[in-house]
Amino acid sequence: MANTLLTIQNVNKYYGDAHVLRDIDLDIQSGEFVALVGQSGGGKSTLLRLIAGLEETSTGEIAQDGHTIDGLNVNSRVMFQDDRLLPWMSVQDNLTFGHTSDKARLAEAQKLLHEVELDDFANAYPDSLSGGQRQRVALARALMANPQLLLLDEPLGALDALTRRKMQELILKLWQERQMTTILVTHDVNEAVRMATKIYVVRDHEIAWSGTNNVAYPRADEAIAPMAGEIMDVILDGHVDQ
Ligand SMILES: Nc1ncnc2c1ncn2[C@@H]1O[C@H](COP(=O)(O)OP(=O)(O)OP(=O)(O)O)[C@@H](O)[C@H]1O
Ligand SMILES: [Mg+2]
């Protein structure tokens, strides 16, 4: 039985007079892969930041595992478009945060570097890596200590098309192996439909549409095209065209 990990109830967010999120209500099940898509400025990143506890709701409540989020959500990790690695630390130290004498932590870092295919780069510094490699380090770092909830804000936005496809596959593989609940914010509708089990369209600061995606993995382009088409309609027109 699936159980609810995250409950978002009647959430509103204002920045001054700007009403950036309106009456958001949604439940996210444990183990789900959720995608939030929609036009720029719609409020996707704001919702992610509220879930991460990086900002406070104006009204309403967000609870994870039955506990209201109040301050930083320590059971979540966020990955952004820029890798935010510490340049003065090696790859391995970015994962262990310099605690390489902690044997368990070091072993976990090495295991994760293996999973993201960077075994040979443990002692390298971020500046010597490609953008794709740095995002793999950032992903490995986000998965240290097995967070209950992984929050991804356009993490692949700066990558070339091929590297992006490979990263999508890597994230999916890790999600399937580790079963962490994942929320991906993306502009790319095909990326959302290729990866997510549940998709929400954020339009004009509201949830305008939601859909469950049951297409089996790996998802061929033809298999995801109908749902991607519907979602594009909603993003552009606010409803599915007949
Ligand atoms: N700290 C802030 N102070 C004031 N306004 C903000 C702040 N953060 C976001 N906003 C405004 O809130 C709205 C939603 O922003 P948000 O970043 O959530 O959109 P988004 O859907 O993630 O867009 P994008 O796809 O471009 O990343 C925008 O109009 C933005 O200007
Ligand atoms: Mg954003």
TrEMBL record:
List, alphabetically, the Pfam families matched.
ABC_tran
- What domain of life? Bacteria
Q: MF terms per GO, please?
A: ATP binding; ATP hydrolysis activity
Read off the SUPFAM superfamilies from this record.
P-loop containing nucleoside triphosphate hydrolases
> Where does the record place the ABC transporter domain?
6-229
Sorted UniProt keywords: ATP-binding, Nucleotide-binding, Transport
InterPro entries, per this entry? Answer: AAA+_ATPase, ABC_SmlMolc_Importer, ABC_transporter-like_ATP-bd, ABC_transporter-like_CS, P-loop_NTPase
Which PANTHER family does this chain map to? Answer: BICARBONATE TRANSPORT ATP-BINDING PROTEIN CMPC, SPERMIDINE/PUTRESCINE IMPORT ATP-BINDING PROTEIN POTA
| Name this protein carries in UniProt | ABC-type nitrate sulfonate bicarbonate transport system, ATPase component
User: Source species, please?
Assistant: Lacticaseibacillus pantheris DSM 15945 = JCM 12539 = NBRC 106106
- Supply the source organism's classification: Bacteria, Bacillati, Bacillota, Bacilli, Lactobacillales
